[in-house]
Write a structure and sequence with these properties.
This protein is α+β, with helices and mostly antiparallel strands. It has one domain. 23% of the residues lie in helices and 33% in strands. The protein contains 4 helices and 16 strands. It is globular and about 60 Å long.
């Protein structure tokens, strides 16, 4: 087995490409340290939510591709205002809705992003299910929030939290294949018909690169310093899965964390990497 020191001798960490928003304060606030039990809970939560966000986002992305491949008119259907993704029985039902809102198209997707059924083109718009209605309402409410944007367009993922509560994640969109738009990701908590809490996951519009490996140099991860939490968050897990690239997150306590395939591990075998805050 390769020793850790040797493994890291060939490690190339991709530092942020740019920070587009305000500069980071000279002395950012230091997150409150967590107990061992709270750290374990925070990491488990980040992994669970990050994977859930990714799987719903993947289902919607691949569903759109599948419908466009079969129905060219879909891309020009001006009635479509968005989509709702619902997990059930290990699959994802993606419903495209109009302004009513009512369902225009539906398709079942497997967890790996492949179609699990035929595209349903509804001859008449169909009413939303109770789940879809609640999800659409939560997303619409989240879109009214005043957040610092880092992209012209955003994708959204609505996750049920139980007891009528929802978490809506607003995620910057990009068309650049080697850019990972970490900065500007937000979470809005919805309950009782209002936004009860919100947070941004970065202080700037920071972007990471996922430049392909070149001859003689193997790129094995992206690197970011996180200033707002003592551990990586669900957004770090999501963007690592989205980029299909490991992410290394340095926190302000001098700890370095590795996110690989949706799992977070503490790296005790290496020194702190150079800081570039998010």
């Amino acid at each position: 087995m390769m020793k850790p020191a040797r493994a890291w001798a060939t490690l190339v960490l991709l530092m942020p490409l740019m920070a587009l928003a305000q500069d980071i304060p000279a002395t950012p606030p230091t997150p409150t340290p967590l107990s061992a039990a709270d750290t374990t809970a925070a990491l488990s939560r980040a992994e669970r939510l990050g994977k859930a966000i990714f799987l719903q986002d993947l289902a919607a992305e691949r569903a759109t591709d599948a419908i466009r491949a079969k129905y060219r008119a879909f891309g020009k259907d001006t009635r479509v205002r968005g989509w709702i993704t619902e997990e059930h029985d290990g699959q994802y039902r993606v419903s495209y809705i109009d302004a009513t809102p009512a369902v225009l198209y539906r398709i079942e997707m497997a967890a790996d992003g492949t179609p699990a059924g035929e595209v349903q083109v509804l001859s008449e718009p169909a009413p939303l299910s109770a789940y879809e209605t609640a999800a659409a309402t939560a997303r619409s409410l989240a879109m009214t929030a005043q957040v610092a944007p880092c992209a012209k367009t955003y994708n959204s993922v609505a996750l049920p939290e139980g007891d009528g509560r929802w978490a809506v994640y607003l995620l910057p969109a990009t068309t650049l294949p080697n850019v990972v738009p970490l900065g500007g990701s937000h979470r809005l908590d919805i309950a009782d018909g209002r936004i009860t809490a919100s947070r941004g996951f970065t202080r700037t519009c920071i972007q990471l690169g996922r430049t392909p490996s070149k001859r003689g140099v193997t790129v094995v991860g992206m690197m970011v310093t996180h200033l707002l939490d003592p551990t990586p968050t669900e957004v770090h897990v999501y963007w690592s899965l989205w980029a299909r690239t490991p992410m290394y997150v340095a926190t302000t306590d001098g700890q370095l964390w590795e996110i690989r395939e949706g799992r977070i591990h503490k790296r005790d075998d290496v020194a702190q990497a150079p800081a570039s805050g998010s």
